[in-house]
Design goal:
The protein is α/β, with parallel strands linked by helices. It has one domain: Ribonuclease Z/Hydroxyacylglutathione hydrolase-like (Metallo-beta-lactamase, Chain A, 4-Layer Sandwich), CATH 3.60.15. It is about 15% helix and about 30% strand. The protein has a 7-stranded mixed sheet with strand order 6-5-4-3-2-1-14. Strands 7-8-9-10-11-12-13 form a 7-stranded mixed sheet. Strand 2 and strand 3 form a beta hairpin.
């Protein structure tokens, strides 16, 4: 399985507009963080996780190939703001979008022209096929099995995804106990870690480390960082063995 991390930033991205903190003014390209997204390639399939407002910019850096599925974690703008930019991928056929029931309802209300049934589409609109994903009910993309997980983003239920022995979880504060068996045996975890100070709807770096250790994940890549952490090189040096501060453009096998 090949993973490409497209973006590792929180909702404002890094640098944050108007900020002159050491992280925002860092010359290290690893401190330039677009909004969170990733590509998973396995079993001959190509899966996009989240499609935020930086999607077009992210895709200009990658090879133009079809997506076999797009997995949405939740409806917040930093995770869905680029859905309209999927329209060039419509030349390959309908783009299959998976989201939980609440997100699917709200996306069709906000972007109705993106989800027009095929028989009523007018020229130029994205050809997006929206499908409801339900926690624990497998999504099958060819021979690839994807398990949606229930994740709590503060009080908002959202989705994480397990694909093979990799799990991708963003914007989590807590995880219900009944989800833990679905994460047994993973060897790679991509996990949100906002900052060091507590936050009501996101894990801190310390909480993310503790959570990953409770699962026994050998390799953990932290994402969804704000500018309220030290520059990449300094922050990375503080992490325990097996933990990595992900950065935009990072690629790895798992």
């Amino acid at each position: 399985m090949h993973i490409t991390i497209l973006g590792t930033g929180t909702s404002t991205g890094v640098p944050q507009i108007g900020c002159t903190c050491p992280t925002c003014t860092s010359a290290d390209p690893r401190d330039k963080r677009l909004r969170c997204s990733a590509i998973v390639e396995a079993e001959g399939k190509r899966i996009l996780i989240d499609c935020g407002p930086d999607f077009r910019q992210q895709m200009l850096r990658t090879q133009f190939k079809p997506f076999d599925a797009v997995l949405i974690t939740h409806e917040h703008y930093d995770h869905v703001g680029g859905l309209d930019d999927l329209r060039p991928y419509s030349i390959f056929g309908d783009v299959h979008i998976y989201a939980d029931a609440l997100s699917a309802k709200h996306l069709t209300e906000r972007l109705p022209y993106c989800f027009i049934p095929k028989e009523r589409r007018y020229p130029g609109v994205p050809a997006l096929d929206l499908r409801v994903a339900t926690p624990h009910v497998p999504i099958r993309v060819g021979g690839l099995e994807i398990i949606p997980l229930l994740v709590m983003h503060g009080k908002l239920p959202i989705l994480g995804y397990r694909i093979g022995n990799m799990a991708y979880i963003t914007d989590m504060k807590t995880l219900p106990d009944e989800e833990l068996p679905l994460l047994r045996g993973i060897d790679t975890l991509v996990l949100n870690a906002l900052r060091h100070e507590p936050h009501p709807t996101h894990q801190t770096i310390e909480e993310a480390v503790a959570f990953a250790r409770s699962l026994g994940s050998p390799e953990t890549y932290l994402i969804h960082m704000s500018h309220h952490i030290q520059p990449h090189a300094q922050e990375e040096a503080l992490l325990p063995a097996g933990f990595h501060l992900a950065y935009d453009g990072l690629e790895f096998e798992c």
